[in-house]
Amino acid sequence: WATENTREALWDAMKRKETYSSTGPRITVRFFGGFDFTPADAQTRMPAEAGYSKGVPMGGDLSHAPAGKAPTFLVAALKDPYSGNLDRVQVVKGWLDGKGNLHEKVYDVVWSDADKRKPGSDGKLPVVGNTVNIKEATWTNTIGAPELITVWKDPDFEPKTRAFYYARIIEIPTPRWTAYDAKRFNVEMDKEVPMMTQERAYTSPIWYTPGT
User: φ and ψ at 29, to 5 degrees?
Assistant: First the structure.
């Protein structure tokens, strides 16, 4: 995320790690962390305005958590207009325990068809569905959502524990490149060859460091 399309601005954006990547589709992602985001910040059409004024962007650092507060994160994702709708947005948290061992946990923070899809007793979210026609290498955007946005608070925050957070955006199932090749060249792939995929995007982390 650069302030302008110049060599200098692009370099500065990469240096501050305000970057994200995808497995192919041009999904658009904004990800901010702070201690004062509220659900109302997810209702604006200008999430970056709230993000920069209340927190730090992807690649940034948080520290010195105010007493009684846990980090809050504003995440917004917009689909690639030529690709699949969005299935869900996840926040991946990593932290170091007292022995220096790394742990990770994945949180589903916002998803499509939220009125119908509810986490089960095991905490897992039901699958979004599947419209892929492997033989024809096609799919339909009759499931999923064109955009997803929310504010999420870490429910397991430990003020004295170093941690990092990054966002992962997942599309609905679409044909994998192997399905397109099979269709184009009229060949039959081995049964072990994956023919579908769920494209995704990943942000740079936001790091949390306890105060000294």
Answer: -135, 135
